[in-house]
Write a structure and sequence with these properties.
Layout: H1 17-23, H2 26-34, E1 52-56, E2 62-65, E3 69-70, E4 78-79, E5 88-93, E6 100-105, E7 111-117, E8 127-131, E9 136-140
Antiparallel strand pairs: 1-2, 1-9, 3-4, 4-8, 5-6, 6-7, 7-8
């Protein structure tokens, strides 16, 4: 994928490993800080259709809008774009014998999920940001 970059530099929100463990549940810590993945179809936001903004569960940074969320039927929330390009960091991930593009929160460098492209979804970007629900919190917007 073009534009994949290294996180480099220090996160805006930096905490010790112990501080993250105290703030996050063991499951949240595993996904956000150890690049784990929640089981498909188990996440809180997989089928959510409510209007609002999705935030990083670790630091609260605004990451995705419900306006870019779509039904990819993949088992995790899917977005075709972050709120802005500087909200996430993309990094090559060669774990598990695959080459993928990892998505991290730009503010705290927590693992969010992966982004895929060229899968044929009818979205403006032809990208699928496949994000773990456990990596997010949601703030609904009043109509």
């Amino acid at each position: 994928m073009e534009g994949v970059e290294s996180p480099g530099g220090t996160p805006k929100i930096a905490k010790s490993d112990q501080e993250w463990r105290e703030q996050l549940s063991p499951a949240e810590y595993h996904v956000l800080r150890e690049a784990g993945t929640e089981p498909a179809w188990t996440g809180e936001y997989t089928e959510t259709r409510t209007r609002g903004v999705y935030h990083c569960r670790a630091c609260g940074a605004e990451l995705f809008s419900s306006g870019t969320k779509f039904q990819a039927h993949c088992g995790w929330p899917a977005f075709f774009s972050p709120l802005a390009g500087d909200r996430v960091i993309l990094r090559e991930d060669r774990s598990h014998g695959m080459v993928r593009t990892e998505v991290l929160c730009a503010a705290c460098h927590s693992h969010l999920g992966h982004v895929f492209e060229g899968e044929g979804y009818p979205t403006p970007t032809d990208q699928r940001y496949c994000i773990n629900s456990i990596s997010l919190t949601f703030s609904p917007v009043e109509d």
